[in-house]
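[Q] Does anyone have a clean structure-token version of this?
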Amino acid sequence: MRVLAALSVAAMLAGPAAAQDERPETTWTELRPSILGERPIRDGAGLVSLEAPKRAEDAALVPVTLRIALPEGDPRRVKSLTLVVDENPSPVVGTIRFAQGQRRFDLSTRIRVNSYSYVRAIAETEEGGLYMTRAYVKAAGGCSAPAVKDPAEAKAHLGEMRFRAFAERGEAQVQVRHPNYSGLQMDQVTRLYTPAWFVESLTVRQGETPLFSMTGGISISEDPTFRFSFTGHSEPVTVAAKDTEGRVFTRTFPAGGGT
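[A] Here you go.
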């Protein structure tokens, strides 16, 4: 009897974790061909990891971190990372590309999550292999949440950039001031939907060496911000961004960081 009772308690404790593993993935089954075609996808464990909150405090500002970490001796290199939120109106959040394949690289950003959903990180190696990891995030309304900043203020600071280097941690952070309207947000005065308008591409390079580039959509949060692995040296860092209205923003910073 005691053994049965102990097994019952163990099953109850394991229940939530098991339930997550059993969540239906109907949406992903439908999305996958349009994003990746019929290419096989392997388990990303040991190659790429994804950190995201189980329950987001703010659905319009959900922090996520992607980590590339191949084991010693593994010859593979990752050439791109694609972030997907299954249940978002535009599921592909963005793709990060590396001109030179990476074996170890961390990147953090903030995204919108519109309803309870799996969030997926898909790594592609230089050989063309696909590897995926996922996390389930409880959040709702992130794509339609009103913008934090007043439209006039947002336009007044449009395209302003910030760059900071954290040498002791081997990291840097870049931010682009932009409202990144999703097209699903309602103007509280006119009661009309604000047209989509967002940063669609961003590149970061040090000297002539590309660090990474990003193509994104409506699911990246207001004032796009990226924290990433960075080994500083004397050459300056140049950040260039382009939005969906064709505006181009470029700024060069000293390697030690600036604003």
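[Q] Thanks! Anything notable?
[A] The chain has three helices and 16 strands.
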